[in-house]
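Q: Joint fold for the lines below.
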Amino acid sequence: MNCKRSSSASSAARVAGNHDILREIFLILPAKSLIRFQSVSRHWQSLIFDDPSFLHSHTLHHSCRRRRCSEHQPSFLLRDSVTSQFFILNPTTKNLVPFRLRFPYLRILQSCNGLLLLECKNSPHGQKDYYICNPATMQSKKLLPDSGKFMTSFAGLFLVFDPSKSHHYKVIGLTRSGNRHGLCRGEDSEYKVEVYDSKTRTWKYQGKRSITYRPFCNGIYWKDGIYFVRPRGHSFFFYLDQDRENDRWIYEPPRIRSPGAKRNYIVESNGHMYCVMLNLYPNKNFCLVFEMDCNDYYIWSKKYHVDLNPISASFAENKGTDIGLLGMIRGDKEEYTLVISRAWQDNGLQVS
Amino acid sequence: MARKNRNPVGKNVDPEAQKKKTRTLTLKSSDGQEFSISESAAVLSIAIENMVEDDCAGGVIPLPLVDGGTLARVITYLNKHAEDGASDEEKRKFDEEFVSGMEMGVLFDVVLAANYLDIRGLLREVRRRIADRMKNKSVEWVRKTFHIESDFTPEEEEQMKKEFAWAWEGVDSDVDD
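A: Joint structure:
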């Protein structure tokens, strides 16, 4: 018995010291476990973080389009609109864990497949700085313009990151060229397109594009383009590839004509784009999910109708007025998770 | 180097494959136990295949890094995978059951043996099983299981735990399943 125990103790130590075996095991472990296991020892920490090729392989191994099982359910990064405090929400356990992003006066411009594009300031009216941040590893990189230029001269900044294709990200910067004054919404304008590539760490001028002027906010990177979907108003997108057409219109997301209709939510998940609409009215609580069909002239087609009455009943005293959508995840086999919340303080989270 | 014989379940009866099925080898563990195994099963281990090809075996193949208990398990695996007519589905089911009952210590022994003997399928299966057992466990459980002493100060550990609080959320109890 003693002999057996000492033999497996030495095997454990041999496995712990065998880089090849450890690396392969680490490759299978989800990122969350690796982040935790960095505190096992300095040796493990350096195995996990000090080898860019390992991180690259892990990213590709776990990228959503390659993974076979849907057990790696993503978490949501949420921000309390009152206190500005961040939380991580795990849809399975429904626990809210406080999360700190160490940037002052922070605005998240875009979230793209696990990376964030951040705008922050040192003081409320201070200079704006831009960062690419990986909230899982807390690694971040300040975006710097070419010499003699300012980041703030960009009219729009977009993050492009697809871990199933590459572990490098790109940032697209649009600068209005020519007539700076007298532009109205809806007027065509020429934009200089510059692309920052994290592989070469340089900006590269990519040419000019004629894009109808609109405020460039809440862009979504989807299918090689940047999409601006306005629940009420004109939606459009432009392809990143120079050779494809310039910006194009998308059909407006559908509306429900009902006194209980609430705002629409545009969600990208697992390679699909959805428009989620909530209708909240006593005993007529439901949710409609539309999916954008990019093969068929960018039409929104109805996918699901979810009865929210059971949920609103469990939030009974609250009359359904502050039910909101926190997020939506599309699983690999067309199953999907809607995370719906009511008032913050109650942690009243219901997952369906 | 040709590896045609890695999957001996073929439609055509290859005389060479037939010979391998009837020829037996003897594997000798670190503690001196001897095991008979058909050559067709043994050569699923690339390390053994190389030894057979180099003909340095001389009938008995010594495996000084594998103890008898572990070697017996590995041979069970090899025999199943060399079995005539075992379907892929059957093998997959066997693989799952094969590793499911193993304690961590046994998994470590088998992963080291599979690594040393270069048995890709077994290695993949055991690694996956180890990762599966580990993934929701605490840092303390991992240290105990892998016999690792922490070289972080308590302050450093506390700092990591605070900074990455979300990664510590939903951790299983340390009781081994």
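Q: Anything notable?
A: The beta strands of chain B are 24-28, 34-38, 60-62. The mean pLDDT of chain B is 86.
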